[in-house]
Amino acid sequence: MKLNFRKSGTGKPLIILHGLFGSADNWYSIAKELEKDYTLYLVDQRNHGDSPHSADWNYDLMAEDLLELMDDEGIAQAYLMGHSMGGKTVMHYALSHPDRVEKLIVADIAPRYYPLHHQVILEGLNAIPVNAIKSRKEADDILAQYIRSVGIRQFLLKSLGRNDAGGFEWKINLPIITKKIEIVGQAIDADEAFPKPTLFMGGANSDYIRPEDQESILRLFPNSQTIFIPNAGHWLHAEQPAAVITEVRDFLG
């Protein structure tokens, strides 16, 4: 699949993949800093942002999408960074294509299986009649009945776009994400480890990376280190962008 991406900057290629319900735009402010040192690729994964929709959706395919992008762009080897679902995609890719990855950064996710925990979000998104609403405020008012956090609602509604007729439509493939949400939590595993430098970067206020995850992290990524960004939760790049930028630069060099 030909993915939508935004390219900027100069230097070694750094490819960034967003998480579930997100898009390349989630990393735009961080990219404005990192593009001073690297050639940035901000990518919309399949069924998200401006990339194509497909009923086929799993980590094998998302990793192959990334391989196709790198081949099309003539990128022999790159730095990879992924957040949450994007972190699982880049882990899968690094384990499958280790020769194409120079260094790996995984943001607030571990290789383990995660139980379903997005049901309320999906209920809220599916409750919005996108063909009938006249404003984003209408959508927000409906979503507020399910999600109290203004910040989370604003993040989710970034995926509400305009269609050619001037109405609203989802940029995410909401029916397929709803139907196949269990794939997001699937564990990442491999027979052979990824031997190159890897940084697991968690939010100190998040429970996505737990002490017991170190066993699987070190088994699959033996040349890895795990750090935690203070005063940050799961969306660490939005909550503490300066700290994330510093850690990325220090790790990549």
TrEMBL record:
Short name of one Pfam family: Abhydrolase_1
Keywords recorded for this protein, A-Z: Hydrolase
GO terms for MF: hydrolase activity
Ranges where the AB hydrolase-1 domain occurs: 12-109
InterPro entries noted in UniProt: AB_hydrolase_1, AB_hydrolase_fold, Epox_hydrolase-like
Key word Hydrolase present: yes
Gene3D superfamilies: alpha/beta hydrolase
Domain of life: Bacteria
Protein name, per record: Esterase/lipase ybfF
